[in-house]
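Hello again, I could really use a second opinion on something today. Take your time with it, there's no hurry, and the full record follows here:

___
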Amino acid sequence: MEIVAGAGLVGGVWPELMPGQCPVLVVPDAARRPVTAEEGWARDAGVLERDPAPGWSATASPPCLTVRRPDGEAWFDGELAAGREWWRALRAHEVLLLVTGPFTSVFDFRPAAAAGNLTLLAVRARTTTNP
């Protein structure tokens, strides 16, 4: 049996849609991706009530997505196993919510969330092609 990478298994990222169709990118274990409060990361969903983090950006050309830190360095750069509805939501909302924390798959996401160990960041997003 082959385990699918890139869909929330074996450390892969996965796209989600929140109620109201806000696009979310869930990113397991950000050890190799810095998350600091100084750059806007927070531990509460209130990040969606504020303006997106200054300097951060997300650029999508389905199926690829690049998220850049304020210094221009890529925080995430890769393909997503996202459906057309997710890409359309990203285009419509122009904001992407990043969620990360000490989990490595969909199976240990819920315990990390229940323990209050998730970190969130809202970033401006633009799509360069129609999904």
